[in-house]
Task: structure prediction
Amino acid sequence: MKYYDIDENEEKILDAVERGEFKSVPGLKERKAALKSYAKNSLNKTMNINIRLSERDVYKLRAKAAEEGIPYQTLAASILHKSASR
Result:
């Protein structure tokens, strides 16, 4: 079993919990599910952008996407994502 050092405020909260002073609020499960859904949806949002690329680069991008069997916009998004995640 792990033991942790807790500060004075955490000790007070722990004591209150052990005395049963905290009660669950009605609809807690539903509220937690809704908040989790909101967080997930806000993190997964996509945004449209407009960028200017040379014609030559777009043709190369389309050819590469065709080789991989995916839409060229998906390939472009994947390349940008990889670069931004470094």
Observations:
- The two ends are 38 Å apart (CA to CA).
- The CA atoms of residues 25 and 77 lie 43 Å apart.
